Amino acid sequence: MTSPTSEPLYPFSEIEPKWQAYWESQKIFQVDLGDVRPKYYCLVMFPYPSAALHVGHGRNYILGDAVARYKLMRGFNVLSPMGFDAFGLPAENAALKTNIHPKVSTLANIERMKHQLSQWGIGYDWSREVVSCLADYYKWTQWIFLKLYEKGLAYKKQGTVNWCSSCQTVLANEQVVDGRCERCDTAVTTRELDQWYFKITAYGERLLEDMKLLEHWPERVKTMQENWIGKSTGVEIEFPVEGENYKLACYTTRVDTIFGVTYLVLAPEHPKVAELCAEIHDSATRAAIEAFVRKVRAEDRIERTAEGTAKEGVFTGRYATHPMNGEKIPIWIANYVLPEYGTGCVMAVPTHDERDFLFAKKYRLPMRMVIDSPKGHLEESRMKEAFEEEGVMINSGAFSGLSSREAWTKIAEFMERNKIGKRTVNFRLRDWLISRQRYWGAPIPIVYCKTCGAVPVPEKELPVVLPENVQFKPTGISPLKDNPEFENTKCPQCGLPAKREVDTMDTFVDSSWYYLRYISPRDNVRAFDTLAVNQWLPVDQYIGGVEHAILHLLYSRFINKVLFDQKYVGFPEPFARLFTQGMIIKDGAKMSKSKGNVVSPDALIKKFGADTVRLYTLFIGPPEKDAEWSERGVEGAYRFLGRLWRFVTQAHDWKITGAGTVNTRELKRMTHEIIKKVTEDLEGDFHFNTAVSSIMELVNACYQFEIKTDEDKKIILEAAQSVVLLSAPFVPHIAEELWSRLGRTGSIFRESWPQYSKEAVRKEEIEIVIQILGKVRSRLTVPAAISESELRARVLDDAKVKECTDGKPIKKLIVVPGKLVNIVV
RNA sequence: GCGGAAGUGGCGGAACUGGCAGACGCACUAGAUUCAGGGUCUAGCGGUCGCAAGGCCGUGGGGGUUCGACUCCCCCCUUCCGCACCA
């Protein structure tokens, strides 16, 4: 353990504040949007302003900063902005305990975070800071709402919604994780409420389709979005109801099993349930059905939709007609059919659907096999589970004998010709519920007028300012309801007294467009400047946590597409490249205050300096993977920086006196080799961990060098300069300091990234591995330019080869140029 | 169940397009330093047999392709993540 009283390995505590102040005074990160250099928009997901950052949060900012600094040195005009996703529940909940207004605590947290970020040496263009809870920002969030409203993409409807009893507000589907509130982990219940939605379902197809454009997004994120959107292709089939003049529509993806339908099932919420039951004259049966419907509707949504939940149902006493064979099909109501997916009515095929199988077994409903397994015929009476695979059609009229796959299309076509059904597409994606019954959010810009109805607040009257003097105790009704000054207004259309919408918007609306605002953050006539935005976006590199794979990233893509359709932006996707970094784990768990495993950066920075924390964070492992934080590892990084410091200062004074095991030519070659390696690591998927290890190798090699000639001085200086330049994006403070100690003036971030010379990288002599039957038996050092025939001769002449082959005939000699020779005997 | 990612020393992890497995770091061992500690430097560090030279085994398991497999193919096991009664 490094003792706190020991001398520092290098004067980090002096140089770090010095260079941080220098960067600020030199405006290194302030961007002139009109600069001639090619643009590079490097964006780190803006954080919620929490009280204190830990090293896990740090990884995010350090990665982004390393990318930004690297691109700066590559000659790009780099935009690296930062802001705060400042509305939201935590501040409001804290306020209930501390009595400090959310605005006050949020702004204080922002200041503290900014201080921490600057201590880390993270460079941003702070002149572009956006704070989503300030009126000059949320004014435009409200404007976005109006843009959706104009196109019918924001609407209000009564429906079953997720309710968190602890947060006292509704939640979007995306915010319910395993049946629990994403924020507070309380089990989510349901309520019937009249709420505002964004019609994201209208964009389901395009959100899916345009994933083709997201070449540089992680596969897992794309897969998660794909699953969430949940597109399925099937057929909607109409079943005439006996004794009625209407039909029940069923959605199925397995139209090939149509001849196996032995009953229909309605969701208890299906609109036709009441109508069907009204015709039932037996009052006891009717009462039983009504009781069942009431019971299921009252059930907890989450429990009801869990897979293991027992299937229950009642027979309605009514029948439908099978559209293909005219059979009489009983109509049931059951808990396992969901009202919101498909048509809320399912054609049941017990033989080929496991859920229908279980239900049919329980209620002794008939089954009919219509697809034979390729492995042999199955008897309905002996089946233990449904056969859900493909096979050969049987008992299916004219379609018998076809493969089920073939029959699928033929039956669908037949149905379309005969107007029985039509092919349709279904999505699992639901509309985005954006109303929240809490205080700390952007008010929804709608006014309710007795004569005009719901009227959008005109753009000119934005922002609808969130009043500050509000009792925001959560009651399940928006606290703004208790503020007559806010609620009472005049109808923008007729001027008569009217009431404002009192709900606020989901904070994910705030964060779904902030990346546009950074381009013209102080513009008070429009949300963003289309021309400038089209120049600067899509974002070249977006960096953030994978926890936003669905929520924020799907919402942003959606909002961007809405703006694209209205020609406010000229690009269909907002983020060209996405990088999702892994979590930092401590003692096997994610860092959190409640677990008490939080590693605070403040003490570490004090003890080892920010560069050490940065270096270790980058070196800890592949940035996209989770990694376990280790204090020992931090010390290793610190020791390396000490070694780097000593090396560069000694190299400058020509004091390198290593054992001389690395010669002049070799050191030059290594220098260029490592410039190449580090550059490739950064150009690829941010392999910072291997980039750092390469730099370590070069420093190690330099310590093996001995300066004897003037040429040696030149070479060691080149190595030293290269090491400093290459490490600058990772450890900017020490790099600046060493750069200046090497006699250079000005910021190292105004320097160009080093270029390697192909000439210097080339080896004159190479070591060839000699394998016999794939096993390494010998090595041979030969000139790099050696001809193959010459190499063969040298190999066969090798003493070790002669010994191992021992007169055995050589069957084959495989030569991999520049690498190895394998001898087959 | 479906989908995704992964499995390499005591640990974190390297390994280009099939070509020397274990780079770099941590931990550890021994030694050096007028050496309390820390720091620094030198050497060692997958397993196993051997005094050594060297041999054999080794990238979750089992098969296969190949002159050659951590890498490609087939089967299986395990872990993590996402979705999940979506018809």
Briefly say what this structure is.
By secondary structure, this protein is an alpha+beta fold. The chain has a 4-stranded parallel beta sheet with strand order 2-1-26-27, covered by helices on one side. Strands 6-5-9-19 form a 4-stranded antiparallel beta sheet.
Shape designation: globular
Radius of gyration: 34 Å
Helix content bin? 25-40%
- Mean pLDDT over the full residue set: 89
Could you give a short account of the major beta sheet? 4 strands, parallel
The computed structural class is: alpha+beta
Extract low-pLDDT stretches. none
Secondary structure tally: strands: 34
Give the distance, in angstroms, between the N- and C-terminal Cα atoms. Answer: 56 Å
The percent range for strand residues is 15-25%
Quickly count the helices.
Answer: 27
Widest sheet: strand ordering:
2-1-26-27
Topology:
Elements: H1 12-26, E1 39-44, H2 55-73, E2 77-79, E3 83-84, H3 89-98, H4 102-119, E4 130-131, H5 135-150, E5 154-164, E6 169-171, E7 176-177, E8 180-181, E9 189-198, H6 204-209, H7 219-229, E10 232-240, E11 247-252, E12 263-266, H8 273-278, H9 283-298, H10 301-304, E13 313-321, E14 328-334, E15 345-348, H11 354-362, E16 371-372, E17 392-393, H12 404-417, E18 421-426, E19 432-433, E20 435-436, E21 446-449, E22 453-456, H13 484-487, E23 488-490, E24 497-500, E25 504-505, H14 507-510, H15 514-517, H16 530-536, E26 541-545, H17 551-565, E27 578-581, E28 584-586, E29 589-590, H18 601-608, H19 610-619, E30 627-628, H20 631-652, H21 664-683, H22 688-703, H23 710-727, H24 732-741, H25 758-761, E31 765-772, E32 775-783, H26 788-797, H27 799-805, E33 812-816, E34 820-824
Parallel strand pairs: 1-2, 1-26, 3-4, 12-14, 26-27, 28-30, 31-34
Antiparallel strand pairs: 5-6, 5-9, 7-8, 9-19, 10-11, 10-18, 12-15, 13-14, 16-17, 20-25, 21-22, 21-24, 23-24, 28-29, 31-32, 33-34
Helix pairs in contact: 1-24, 2-19, 3-4, 18-19, 19-20, 20-22, 20-23, 21-22, 21-23, 22-23, 23-24
The protein binds one RNA strand of 87 nucleotides through helix 7, strand 11, strand 15, helix 11 and strand 30.
